[in-house]
Automatic annotation (TrEMBL):
FAR1 domain mapped to chain residues: 60-145
Protein name (record): FAR1 domain-containing protein
Pfam families linked to this entry: FAR1
InterPro entries: FAR1_DNA_bnd_dom
Lineage start: Eukaryota, Viridiplantae, Streptophyta, Embryophyta, Tracheophyta
Annotated source species: Thalictrum thalictroides
Ranges where the record places region Disordered: 1-21
Biased composition annotated in UniProt, kind: Polar residues: 1-10
Length: 151
Protein backbone atom coordinates (compact mmCIF):
# COMPACT_ATOMS: atom_id res chain seq x y z
CA UNK A 1 0.00 0.00 0.00
CA UNK A 2 1.42 3.33 -1.05
CA UNK A 3 1.37 5.97 1.72
CA UNK A 4 1.27 8.84 -0.77
CA UNK A 5 -2.27 7.86 -1.86
CA UNK A 6 -3.56 8.25 1.70
CA UNK A 7 -5.61 11.48 1.93
CA UNK A 8 -5.46 11.89 5.72
CA UNK A 9 -2.42 13.44 7.34
CA UNK A 10 -0.69 11.56 10.12
CA UNK A 11 1.25 13.53 12.68
CA UNK A 12 3.78 12.09 15.07
CA UNK A 13 3.66 13.27 18.66
CA UNK A 14 6.64 13.39 21.03
CA UNK A 15 6.35 9.65 21.79
CA UNK A 16 6.64 8.79 18.10
CA UNK A 17 3.01 7.58 17.95
CA UNK A 18 0.44 8.56 15.37
CA UNK A 19 -1.56 11.59 16.46
CA UNK A 20 -4.71 11.46 14.29
CA UNK A 21 -6.92 12.86 17.07
CA UNK A 22 -5.01 16.14 17.18
CA UNK A 23 -5.14 16.42 13.38
CA UNK A 24 -8.93 16.07 13.59
CA UNK A 25 -9.06 18.64 16.41
CA UNK A 26 -7.08 21.13 14.31
CA UNK A 27 -9.62 20.78 11.50
CA UNK A 28 -12.47 21.34 13.95
CA UNK A 29 -10.78 24.46 15.30
CA UNK A 30 -10.36 25.83 11.76
CA UNK A 31 -14.08 25.30 11.13
CA UNK A 32 -15.02 26.98 14.43
CA UNK A 33 -12.82 29.96 13.61
CA UNK A 34 -14.57 30.31 10.24
CA UNK A 35 -17.97 30.26 11.98
CA UNK A 36 -16.85 32.98 14.41
CA UNK A 37 -15.75 35.19 11.53
CA UNK A 38 -19.07 34.66 9.76
CA UNK A 39 -21.03 35.52 12.92
CA UNK A 40 -19.14 38.78 13.30
CA UNK A 41 -19.98 39.69 9.70
CA UNK A 42 -23.71 39.16 10.37
CA UNK A 43 -23.89 41.65 13.24
CA UNK A 44 -26.06 44.59 12.23
CA UNK A 45 -24.71 48.11 12.22
CA UNK A 46 -26.74 51.15 13.13
CA UNK A 47 -25.64 54.62 12.08
CA UNK A 48 -27.09 57.94 11.00
CA UNK A 49 -27.64 58.23 7.27
CA UNK A 50 -29.00 54.72 6.72
CA UNK A 51 -32.01 54.67 4.36
CA UNK A 52 -35.11 52.44 4.44
CA UNK A 53 -38.03 52.08 2.05
CA UNK A 54 -40.75 52.05 4.73
CA UNK A 55 -41.19 52.95 8.37
CA UNK A 56 -42.04 49.31 9.11
CA UNK A 57 -38.78 48.16 7.51
CA UNK A 58 -36.88 50.65 9.68
CA UNK A 59 -38.66 49.51 12.85
CA UNK A 60 -38.05 45.82 12.04
CA UNK A 61 -34.35 46.53 11.49
CA UNK A 62 -34.08 48.32 14.85
CA UNK A 63 -35.97 45.50 16.63
CA UNK A 64 -33.56 42.94 15.15
CA UNK A 65 -30.60 45.16 16.12
CA UNK A 66 -31.99 45.31 19.66
CA UNK A 67 -32.42 41.54 19.78
CA UNK A 68 -28.82 40.97 18.68
CA UNK A 69 -27.51 43.44 21.26
CA UNK A 70 -29.76 42.47 24.18
CA UNK A 71 -32.37 45.20 24.57
CA UNK A 72 -36.07 45.46 23.67
CA UNK A 73 -37.34 48.28 21.45
CA UNK A 74 -40.50 50.39 21.37
CA UNK A 75 -42.02 53.09 19.19
CA UNK A 76 -41.49 56.25 21.17
CA UNK A 77 -43.04 59.12 19.26
CA UNK A 78 -43.98 60.39 15.84
CA UNK A 79 -44.96 63.68 14.23
CA UNK A 80 -47.24 64.19 11.28
CA UNK A 81 -46.80 66.61 8.43
CA UNK A 82 -49.35 69.18 7.26
CA UNK A 83 -51.24 66.56 5.23
CA UNK A 84 -51.54 64.07 8.09
CA UNK A 85 -48.78 61.67 7.01
CA UNK A 86 -46.09 60.59 9.49
CA UNK A 87 -42.92 62.59 8.75
CA UNK A 88 -40.74 62.04 11.84
CA UNK A 89 -40.41 59.04 14.10
CA UNK A 90 -38.42 58.08 17.18
CA UNK A 91 -37.75 54.50 18.30
CA UNK A 92 -36.16 53.81 21.67
CA UNK A 93 -34.99 51.18 24.11
CA UNK A 94 -38.08 50.02 25.99
CA UNK A 95 -36.39 50.97 29.26
CA UNK A 96 -36.52 54.66 28.32
CA UNK A 97 -38.74 56.98 30.31
CA UNK A 98 -39.73 56.99 33.94
CA UNK A 99 -42.26 54.82 35.70
CA UNK A 100 -45.11 56.37 37.60
CA UNK A 101 -46.95 53.93 39.78
CA UNK A 102 -50.62 53.71 38.84
CA UNK A 103 -51.37 51.04 41.41
CA UNK A 104 -53.40 52.19 44.39
CA UNK A 105 -52.84 48.91 46.15
CA UNK A 106 -49.41 48.78 47.81
CA UNK A 107 -49.54 44.97 47.81
CA UNK A 108 -49.80 44.73 43.99
CA UNK A 109 -46.51 46.35 43.08
CA UNK A 110 -45.06 45.49 39.69
CA UNK A 111 -41.35 45.28 38.93
CA UNK A 112 -39.96 48.53 37.55
CA UNK A 113 -38.34 48.15 34.13
CA UNK A 114 -37.96 51.83 33.23
CA UNK A 115 -34.49 53.22 33.90
CA UNK A 116 -34.51 56.45 31.90
CA UNK A 117 -32.36 54.86 29.18
CA UNK A 118 -31.27 57.34 26.50
CA UNK A 119 -30.73 54.85 23.64
CA UNK A 120 -32.87 55.82 20.64
CA UNK A 121 -32.93 56.56 16.93
CA UNK A 122 -34.69 59.35 15.09
CA UNK A 123 -35.73 59.16 11.45
CA UNK A 124 -37.35 61.45 8.89
CA UNK A 125 -39.32 60.85 5.73
CA UNK A 126 -37.48 62.42 2.80
CA UNK A 127 -39.15 63.82 -0.36
CA UNK A 128 -37.97 60.76 -2.32
CA UNK A 129 -40.27 58.64 -0.12
CA UNK A 130 -37.50 56.91 1.84
CA UNK A 131 -36.87 56.98 5.59
CA UNK A 132 -33.46 58.19 6.72
CA UNK A 133 -32.00 57.73 10.21
CA UNK A 134 -31.08 61.27 11.28
CA UNK A 135 -29.59 60.54 14.71
CA UNK A 136 -28.47 57.53 16.73
CA UNK A 137 -27.83 57.36 20.46
CA UNK A 138 -26.58 54.02 21.80
CA UNK A 139 -26.07 55.18 25.40
CA UNK A 140 -27.74 52.55 27.58
CA UNK A 141 -27.75 53.07 31.34
CA UNK A 142 -28.50 49.44 32.11
CA UNK A 143 -26.95 46.06 31.45
CA UNK A 144 -27.53 44.50 28.02
CA UNK A 145 -28.36 40.80 27.73
CA UNK A 146 -27.85 39.48 24.18
CA UNK A 147 -28.18 35.88 25.38
CA UNK A 148 -31.61 36.55 26.87
CA UNK A 149 -33.12 38.44 23.95
CA UNK A 150 -36.02 36.93 22.07
CA UNK A 151 -35.51 36.18 18.40
Amino acid sequence: MDASNNTSDVYMNEDGKDDMVNAHQDTKNDINMEKDVNLEENIRKLEAGMMFDTIDELFEYYVNYGNENGFPVKRRSSKKGEYGEVRYVSFACSRSGKTESTSRNAFKLHPITKTGCDAKINASLFPCGKWKITSVSLDHNHELSPGKSRC
